[in-house]
Amino acid sequence: MKRIVSGIKPTGSLTLGNYIGAIKQFVKLQKARENDEFFLFIADLHAITTRQIPHELRKRTLDIAAMYLACGLDKERTTLFIQSEIPQHAELGYILQSNVYMGELERMTQYKDKLESNDVSISSSLFTYPALMAADIILYDADYVPVGDDQKQHLELTRDIANRFNHYYSDFFTVPEPLIPEVGARIMDLQNPEKKMSKSENNPKGYITLFDDEKTITRKIKSAKTDSLGIIKYDPLEQKGLANLINIFASISDISINQIVDKYKNSDYKTFKEDLAKTLVDVLIPIQLKYQEIINSNELNEILDKGRSIASDYAFKKMRKCKRKIGLGRK
Ligand code: AMP
Ligand code: TRP
Fold it and tell me: Ligand 1 pocket: which of 16, 18, 210 to mutate (most atoms <8 Å of CB)?
């Protein structure tokens, strides 16, 4: 039996990028790996590395939990929980800060991008974020971590931290492996295909959220930036915008990029976009209906209580051993 662990930050609305790069992967893995265990959490401690409005943060945390379930996660086989409800994440995160170097944290692209954005108020927790992320993962001895491409670097650092700890204190943490989808690991902004699709982006035309209605989805796909070549082929260098749309189409309908190109090679962009929008609507609208059912039920709280109890049990035992190993406290 393997354990699979992943998380999503409750900042902004969930985007199609989150769905394709992370949630859909998770659901797929769950179907394929019947004997494995799945831990999934909402990373609210990560969210507060940038300023959040308290009532919005709480609402989004529950929204994401409900959305995970609406996207097809098997509630019987998932330990779904909220990161801040398990204090051992922060405790281990602090310990791991002593096992990671400034230079390593300074090399993280996500942090460097933030520095370049000239934001004057970068919190120190944003800088040490990868130590907390490593804690989220190795606290549960995760074997695999399904994430989008943007988290690859953080996963590599997690492995380094786990190895370093194991080397100094003797084997203790499982060293996790990232699982990054072959197609759809990096969904790009619809207006600027040089940038990844992100919920913190200012221009809403660039991203589709899982809450967008039919009209909005269709409009955003219609206005997605392409090129003036007018030929449907997969060329991520010369036709970045179109390649991104082909990627989205392939991922959402579970067919290969070649099959999409084959089907549309004699079509124009307009027809291609109309079909893509329709496919997206057919996938997203049922998810939204399911989400409405879940968010308005009591079940969500019950699932989160159960998740907290299972995660907490594991985390408590692991941290007790961990502190003993390090020499903290009285044994
Ligand atoms: P975040 O919303 O930053 O917490 O990301 C949650 C998960 O979604 C992570 O596994 C990310 O790698 C994934 N993700 C976020 N944006 C994208 C994107 N544009 N394309 C693919 N995966 C993404
Ligand atoms: N850092 C991830 C992101 O921004 C979210 C996250 C936090 C995560 N802890 C994690 C993902 C542990 C996987 C495993 O997307």
Answer: 18
